[in-house]
Amino acid sequence: MTAFQGNIQPIKLNTSVQQALGKHLLSCYPHEACGVLLGTAAAGGMRIDRYLPLRNVAPDPLHTFVPDPKEWIRALYLEPAPVGLFHSHPHTAPWPSSADIQGLPSLGPEFQIYLIGSPGPKSGEPMCLHGFQILRQQKPSGQLIYKLLQSPVMLC
Ligand SMILES: [Zn+2]
C-alpha cells in the first residue's frame, strides 16, 4: 500500500479510455457522469485500460453522482476488480468537492485511482481531466483517514 507521503506516480491512460471518458461526460451533460476504471499496477504507475460507464441515479444528478446500485455491485465483482472511479463535474473545475472526499470511505481498498473530468472551456475542446491517488492512512486509534493526492495523467 502506498505510504501517505509516498512518491507521486503517474496515472497512465489508454487513449481509447480517454475518449470513452470524454464521450460519457458529454452524453450525460448537464448531469454528472460516473463509472469505474479497470487496469493494472504497472512499473512506474497505474495503467488504466478500460472504462465501464455506470448510470447516475442520484436524486440531484446535476450536482452529485450515485452509481446505479445493481451496476455498481456487478462492477465490483469483475475480475480483476476496478482500480478506480471516474466522475464528471459538468459545471465546475475537476477538483474534488467535500462530498467527493466524504464518499472515499465507501470505496474498497482496491480503488486506488480517482479521476474527475470537466468539459473543455469551449465546446469541441477536449475535457479537462485531473487524476488523483487515493491514500489511506490508519491513525493509532484505528480510524482510517482518506486523502486524494494529485497525480499527473499520461496518455499512452
Ligand atoms: Zn465530484
Write the layout of secondary structure elements.
Blueprint: E1 11-13, H1 15-28, E2 34-42, E3 45-54, H2 69-76, E4 84-88, H3 98-103, E5 113-118, E6 128-138, E7 144-151, E8 153-155
Parallel strand pairs: 1-3, 1-8, 4-5
Antiparallel strand pairs: 2-3, 2-4, 5-6, 6-7
This protein binds zinc ion.
Query: How many structural domains in the coordinates?
Result: 1
| Percent in strands | 35-45%
Strand order of the largest sheet: 7-6-5-4-2-3-1-8
CATH H level: which superfamily?
A: Cytidine Deaminase, domain 2
Order of helices and strands: EHEEHEHEEEE
Q: Which small molecules are bound?
A: zinc ion
DSSP, total strands: 8
Q: Determine the structural class based on helices, strands and strand pairing.
A: alpha/beta
Helix content range: 10-25%
CATH topology descriptor: Cytidine Deaminase, domain 2
CATH architecture descriptor name: 3-Layer(aba) Sandwich
Count the DSSP helices. Answer: 3
Report the major sheet: 8 strands, mixed
| Rounded Rg | 15 Å
* Overall pLDDT level: 92
Q: Span from first to last CA? A: 25 Å
Envelope shape: globular
Low-confidence stretches: none
CATH class: Alpha Beta
Q: Can you give a write-up of this model?
A:
The protein is an alpha/beta fold and 156 residues long. The chain is 18% helix and 35% strand. It is built from 3 helices and 8 strands. The chain has an 8-stranded mixed sheet. Strand 2 (34-42) and strand 3 form a beta hairpin. The longest helix has 14 residues, at 15-28. It is globular and about 50 Å long. Zinc ion (ZN) binds at residues 87, 89, 97, 100, 116.
Explain briefly what this protein structure is.
With 156 residues, the protein is of the alpha/beta class. It is 18% helix and 35% strand. It has one domain: Cytidine Deaminase, domain 2.
